[in-house]
Amino acid sequence: QVQLVESGGGLVQAGGSLRLSCAASGRTFNGYTMGWFRQTPGKKREFVAAITWSGTSTYYADSVKGRFTISRDNGKNTVYLQMNSLKPEDTAVYFCAVRRSTVVVTTIDYDYWGRGTQVTVSS
Predict the structure, then answer these.
(1) Quick check: 27 pLDDT over 80?
(2) Cβ 115 vs Cβ 7: under 8 Å
(3) Mean pLDDT, the chain, as a whole number?
(4) For the segment 75-121, what is each residue's pLDDT rounded down to a tens digit?
(5) C-alpha distances in angstroms, 22 versus 49, 98, 114, 121?
(6) Which of 33, 34, 86 minimizes the C-alpha distance to 63?
(7) CB 60 within 8 A of CB 71
(8) With 0-12 CB in 10 A as exposed, 13-18 as middle and 19+ as buried, what is 20?
(9) Is the Cβ–Cβ distance between 111 and 1 less than 8 Å?
(10) How far is CA 108 from the centre of its chain?
């Protein structure tokens, strides 16, 4: 059982930056993949970024590549999403997720989800 709590969302102007954090608690294990997804009304939840347990491999959606950076601190059981050069189309509820596998996927096939944090980018 894993509990995830996101933080760091808010309102920012286009071109600005935010850093999201996701703290994991409960029965966690080494080897879990962690990722970020986002969802807006009328759209399906979409993949944003993922990182392996070692932190040596990262994966990004084309829409955020070069602007967002995912990282993790296993000692703190926390994953981060640094978001730079934000665009209005980045507006969404952002969810962190954990997959009980060392195999990274970019689908929604993750085992645990946070409740989400709202990110709003104004033009």
Answers:
(1) no
(2) no
(3) 94
(4) 888 999 999 999 999 999 999 999 988 888 999 999 999 999 999 99
(5) 13, 10, 8, 20
(6) 86
(7) no
(8) buried
(9) no
(10) 12
